[in-house]
Amino acid sequence: ALARGSLCGNMKLDFAPLHVPRHRRLQTAVVLIWVFSFLALAPLCIFLFFFLLFTQYWLVSVLYAIWWFIDYDTPWRGGRRVHFLCGLKLWDHMRDYFPVKLVKTAELDPKHNYVMGFHPHGVLVAGAFSNFCVYATGFRQMFPGLTSYMLMLPLWFRAPFFRDYIMCAGLIPSDKEGASYPLQLHPGGTAVVIAVGGAPEALDAHPGTFNVLLAKKKGFIKMAMEQGAHLVPIFSFGENEVFDQVDNSRGTWLRWTQEKLQGIMGISLPLFHARGIFQYSFGLMPYRKPIHTVVGRPIRVEKNPKPTSEELNALHQLYMDELSNLFEKHKTNYGVEKDVHLNFV
């Protein structure tokens, strides 16, 4: 039974039991590190860089600035994944927290390159990180010969120290230069993973919703055509279920404010919440709800350096159809009602 206490009169806290198994404590600790990295580590690194300049350790920031200048282009040249860190046992604890499972539906020939569209973005793309950044769910075993590169906003690669941290996990900038480089570097065996809806889609990440920001998203389709990389749709069931979000329906003042800030800053600011570390009522830790990331079959793409609008639109429509078919085929396996369909925005 859960111990109960009161908060602000009406709100009651459901406290975690005192005797929690060790493996569950480890899972919570690793997910806490991951949430902290997403929410606070970048500004903390920026603060630390400037703070050190005014202390006796000023040389640390100066030497890092020199290194940063020399190494500036590395994120746009495939990054610098550290395989040892990606394979650490601690990521298994993160996988088991939810848990996260990668589901394979078709073979991907390593003789080709792939642009993989990840849907939906969710709040913190937990499924994408677990499956395609670290080695916790068996991507390398399921798709031997493929190396995955997850895309992230270029803004984060301009934060001192933090840029090196995220590159360790195989993250690279999501602009055209950064995303296309791995596809140009190797004739096969490269999988660039794009959370297509990006920051704006995070604002629609409410439990029980299946809104996919895709109707006007054609940049990744064009890149696949220019590079001759096959397209692979991915749908991550449960991605929107691990956090609650304050109601921000389109047309409300909150949504208007969030969209304005997103346009200015380049990042979205969803007001999300879930559970805490020692209690289950409120906090920024995600819920323990399963995430099943289903990788669809590849869509063959012929290299076309200068696709016409008609060719681009046709392939974009084919991709949306394949994503919809993937969702329809697997939705009932993961608790989605038969009468629920994807809503392309």
UniProtKB/TrEMBL annotation:
<keyword id="KW-0472">Membrane</keyword>
<dbReference type="GO" id="GO:0019432">
    <property type="term" value="P:triglyceride biosynthetic process"/>
</dbReference>
<dbReference type="GO" id="GO:0003846">
    <property type="term" value="F:2-acylglycerol O-acyltransferase activity"/>
</dbReference>
<keyword id="KW-0444">Lipid biosynthesis</keyword>
<keyword id="KW-0812">Transmembrane</keyword>
<keyword id="KW-1133">Transmembrane helix</keyword>
<protein>
    <recommendedName>
        <fullName>Acyltransferase</fullName>
        <ecNumber>2.3.1.-</ecNumber>
    </recommendedName>
</protein>
<dbReference type="Pfam" id="PF03982">
    <property type="entry name" value="DAGAT"/>
</dbReference>
<dbReference type="GO" id="GO:0004144">
    <property type="term" value="F:diacylglycerol O-acyltransferase activity"/>
</dbReference>
<feature type="transmembrane region" description="Helical">
    <location>
        <begin position="29"/>
        <end position="51"/>
    </location>
</feature>
<keyword id="KW-0012">Acyltransferase</keyword>
<keyword id="KW-0808">Transferase</keyword>
<dbReference type="GO" id="GO:0005789">
    <property type="term" value="C:endoplasmic reticulum membrane"/>
</dbReference>
<comment type="similarity">
    <text>Belongs to the diacylglycerol acyltransferase family.</text>
</comment>
<keyword id="KW-0256">Endoplasmic reticulum</keyword>
<keyword id="KW-0443">Lipid metabolism</keyword>
<dbReference type="GO" id="GO:0006651">
    <property type="term" value="P:diacylglycerol biosynthetic process"/>
</dbReference>
<dbReference type="InterPro" id="IPR007130">
    <property type="entry name" value="DAGAT"/>
</dbReference>
